[in-house]
Amino acid sequence: MAPKAAFLMANYGHDPTETAVPYTEFKKAGFEIDFITEAGNMPKCDAKMLTGMTQKLLGATKEAVDQYNAMKEDMKTMKAKSWTDDEFSLDPYDLIFLPGGHEKGVVQVINSPVTHRLMVDYFPKTRKPSNKTVAAICRQ
Predict the structure, then answer these.
(1) Does the global pTM surpass 0.85?
(2) How far apart are alpha carbons 111 and 132 in whole angstroms?
(3) I need a labelling partner for 8 at 20 to 30 A (CA). Which of 15, 66, 116, 134 fits?
(4) Rg (CA), the chain
(5) pLDDT in tens, the chain (140 residues)
(6) Which domains are seen in the chain, by residue range?
């Protein structure tokens, strides 16, 4: 059975590099990946990091943009899950991944009492010898 990863994300605003590069690597490593958002909508990354002047100065590299575009293609055949669904649990996942971002929309994850409850429940399950892991990234 393949390991499972949950990308816990806001509807909009995550850094495309901090999402697509790990997505690509986890996928290469054989992970099944689910995107988890508040209402079960597929997340969208910060468009400013993909095009225009901001992209040229601070944004994603060509390789990261290519990986983001490939991830978006994969997303067309996926269905996001909702962290507010009464039946939703992080228990089936081996890895909970939290990508970062500078866009103010990412606070949707940070400010949610539901994600707080889910993480408080999950985090003790990462104690070794468990194979469960929590990972976050921010490339400041």
Answers:
(1) yes
(2) 24
(3) 66
(4) 15
(5) 899 999 999 999 888 889 999 999 999 999 999 999 999 999 998 887 776 556 555 667 788 889 999 999 999 999 999 999 999 999 999 999 999 888 888 899 999 999 999 999 999 999 999 999 999 987 54
(6) 4-136 (3.40.50.880)
